[in-house]
Amino acid sequence: MIRIGMLSYWHVHAEDYTKQVLGHPNTEIAAIWDELPDRGAEKAAKYGVPFIANLDELLARDDIDAVVVDAPTNMHRDVMVKAARAGKHIFTEKVVATTVSEANEIAAAVRDAGVKLAVSLPRLYDGYTQSILEVIDSGKLGQLTLARVRLSHNGSTANWLPPHFYSKEQCGGGALIDLGCHPVYLVRKFLGLPESVSATFGFVSGREVEDNAVAVFAYPNGAVGIAEAGFVNSHSPFSIELHGTDGTLLYGFPEEKILVRSNQDSEKVWTEVPVGDRLPFAFEQWVGHIESGTEATENIAFALDLTTLMEAANRSAAEGKSVRLSDLQG
After folding, report:
1. Residue 259 backbone dihedrals phi, psi, to 5 degrees
2. pLDDT, tens digit, for every residue of 38-70?
C-alpha cells in the first residue's frame, strides 16, 4: 500500500485526486497538510486522517511514501523540492511551475532524489486524443499546417470559480495557465515545440488575471498552432481543428465526434472516426511507475514543455511581442 500525504486543497481538482487516491486499490491517504490550517483540519476530519500543520513534519514521517500536491502554483517549487529531498514520490496538478527555471529546479530535485514524478495532463490520455493521433499517423491529413484547440467556460462571468483563482501571485496567470494548459499541451502533441509564441490576453470581467486568451505558436516549417481559453463563455464547446495539405480533422463542433475529410479518400466526403479508449489517468500511471521503478518520461517532458510555453505566452502578453523559446532562461 502506497501511503500518501495530501498537500493542500487549494486547487479546484484536489477533491478529484482525493477520489483517485481512495479509489485505487494500492493507495491510501495517510495525512493532510494545508497552507490554510482550518481547511486542512476540515479535510482531515472528513477523511479520518491526521492533519499536520507543519509541512516539514509531514515530510519527515516514515509512514508517508508519496504526496499529491495541490498547493498554490507559486508554492510548487518550494513544496516539491522539499518533498523530493525528503524521498517522497510526487503527483501534482499542472502547471508544474510557472517558469522554466523553477520547473528545472523541481525536475533536478526529483532526479537527484530518485523519486517518481507525474503531472496531471488528462486530455493527453483521453480517447479522442488517441484516435486523432492515429489519423495523423495514417497520413490522411498530409503535412499538418494548422492546429487549433479551444477550451472555455463561464467561471468568471457566472462567478463559480473560487476567488483565489483570480490571484496573479498565486496562479501565475488566469485562463491560459489554468484551462489553457490543456489546449497548449495538445497543440504541443500534434505539432511539436514551436520556435516562438505570441499571446493576447483579454480582461472581460475586470479581474486581476486574464479571462480571455489566445496563444499562437510559430513553427519553422510554416505551420501555426493556436491555443484558446476563457472564463467568460457560456456555451463554448471543447474543440480541436487540424488542417493539413491533404485533409482536415474536426472534433467538438459541437458534438464529441471526430470528422475527417481527406483528398486521399476517393469520395472526399466527411467521415466519422470512432473515438477509442483512453489511456490510464496520470495518477494511475504514477502509481505504476512507483511500483515498477520506471519513469514517467513522456509525461514529465510534456509538463516541462508546458511550463516553457506558458512562460513564453505570459511574457509575450506582457511585453506585446513574440517570444522565442530559445530566449527563455532555464
Report:
1. -115, 135
2. 999 999 999 999 999 999 999 999 999 999 999
